[in-house]
Write a structure and sequence with these properties.
Blueprint (H helix, E strand, L loop, with lengths): L2 H15 L1 H27 L13 H14 L1 H4 L25 H11 L10 H13 L12 H6 L10
Helix pairs in contact: 3-6
The chain binds heme C.
């Protein structure tokens, strides 16, 4: 056999030798892509509550934060945090990945600029508790360890919405 024929045959053999494993790999990559697409849709329709969210505060902190939030913040940000005169403090627009917010960025706004009418007027503890309540409303679970002012001021954990 000479030249072209051998080339054709070896090309053929090369193709034939790609199989089983490579074909299986290709198939599983395609399946993974299809799955990811499906999951994306499923996530849009029905994200799992708190899935993948870190526990950063205690239930007690969030509970105390709820009280202060209702007194000091709800007037502008609404009792359900969905926004009124001030923007929503929960949900996919507040926590859009495209904003690239870290928790410390949001906490800085809370502790330095809010309440808008008297910035910085609450105690460190109250700000941390309100932050816990905001996180709870974005699907972060309560855990065993209390969040501290220091920690949350530095937290590089990305802001996300994990709810519903
Ligand atoms: C008098 C109305 C008012 C009160 C009370 C108030 N806010 Fe705000 N808040 C605003 C407004 C208006 C903005 C938007 C400011 C801007 O975009 O420059 C804002 C912005 C924010 C943001 C930034 C949101 C974002 O997506 O960038 C956070 C977080 C926030 N407020 C938290 C709080 C918390 C917590 C309290 C209570 C301690 C509070 N605010 C009290 C009016 C208020």
């Amino acid at each position: 056999m000479s030249g072209p024929a051998r080339a054709a045959r070896s090309r053929h053999r090369r193709d034939a030798s790609v199989p089983p494993r490579a074909r299986a790999a290709r198939a599983s990559i395609l399946a993974a892509i299809a799955d990811a697409a499906k999951n994306d849709c499923a996530a849009d329709a029905k994200p799992k509550k708190g899935k993948g969210a870190p526990a950063l505060f205690t239930a007690e902190q969030a509970e105390l934060g709820k009280k202060t939030y209702e007194e000091k913040c709800a007037f502008c940000h609404a009792p359900d945090l969905n926004g009124r005169a001030g923007p929503a403090l929960r949900g996919k627009f507040f926590a859009a990945p495209s904003h690239g917010y870290k928790l410390r960025d949001i906490f800085k706004i809370v502790a330095e600029n809010m309440p808008a009418t008297s910035p910085g007027s609450l105690s460190h503890e109250e700000y941390v508790q309100i932050m816990a309540y905001i996180l709870l409303n974005n699907g972060y679970p309560a855990g065993d360890a209390a969040m501290t002012f220091e920690e949350i001021s530095r937290s590089k954990v990305p802001l996300r919405f994990y709810e519903e």
